[in-house]
Predict the 3D structure of the following.
Amino acid sequence: MKARETNAPKPAPTRLTPPERELVAAAKKARLRAHAHQSQFKVGAAARYGNEIVLGCNVESDVYGLTNCAERTAVFAAHASGVARKGLRMIAVIADSPDPVSPCGACRQVLFEQGGPDLRVIMCNTHGDVRVMTLAELLPGGFRLPRTQQRSTTTTTRTPTLRR
Ligand code: THU
């Protein structure tokens, strides 16, 4: 077996519920679709909205900074396919990493906005290690626009009144 490349303590085994295990299996499947020609680091994610599971994978660009992480791909796909209104309840993410893969700062912010502080984040690696944390634990004090600044989708998509 390959030696662990980290000094971090091995995470304690985590018991997952059947819906959580289903989400991890879906994330594993999504990882196979990763477009990771720059880093070769393939990541899969699966987000649960009600009873629906939306998949995401990392999509890299020749212009490195344009890469999109697996977690945000899943969230954006949920919006595009119309299931995001059901509310994000849980997300699983998986990679071939020594420790369960942990969402980057940008993804934590987006997940905070989408799922709130209680969102369950199931972090996994392909060796079977799992770590579950809430978004509040991953991102204490995440940013939200003040309520007065938030615009509902209906407001932004309303046809503007023409001025004569
Ligand atoms: N990546 C993800 O997709 N999710 C994470 O949680 C960590 C990093 C991707 C971005 C990039 O394609 C590759 O992993 C290496 O950073």
